[in-house]
Amino acid sequence: MSEEVKETSETPEATGQAEQPSKAEKQPKGEKSAKGEKGGKGGKGDKVDKGDKGGKKDKKAEPEEKQVFPVPRLKTKYQQVVVGQLKEALGTPNRMAIPRLQKIVCNMGVGRARDNKRILESVSKELGQITGQKPVITKARGSEAGFKIRTGDPIGCKVTLRGNRMWEFLDRLITIAIPRIKDFRGLSMKAFDGNGNYSMGLSEQLVFPEIHPDKVEFQQGMNITFVISGGNDDDSRELLRFMGMPLQRAGE
Length: 252
Fold this sequence. Notes:
The protein is of the alpha+beta class.
């Protein structure tokens, strides 16, 4: 009799505890599918299939089209016209012996920059607009007590042009800038250095159309040097003349 009493006491009804619902009763399957529609784990099916990734690889595999820039007009003239004219004028059949333009150096010496640094910043910006290339700030190599300059002080800026930028700058210089010089009577023939290089000067930067006169704060000139291969002044003179440089004639 005692064992029967223990069994009856351990029944849920005797203890007063209700049976816990099973997993199926806690959350019906229909509710799980509803969660998947709201963006649960079931929402992963909306992502792009792996097969679509193959399309991205195909796009990367396609070669990109390179941007083609036009050849400068003056460079084409040199290759097609000037080379033949120089062969006849110099009597040189070898094309490699003909003088050619290697680089152009534009230099601005700004001595006033020691008192006002804003002058050098303004002039350097304008030189970049003229040449299409960022200038390099030049610094003093030695100290000069008379000019109040110490070693390392910024005193100017310069730009070295090569390649297509060199030809484009020379074209704008010959066709636009030089004709705008006041009281122009031709470039001097005595400005060669004995090694075939030619230098010229401009009193102001306003001759270039890239500079707006109303926005110029400080008037500044510049030196332009043409570095020419060959090492002969006479050959370099013929090259510049055939390129269209308005050099003075002998006796002028």
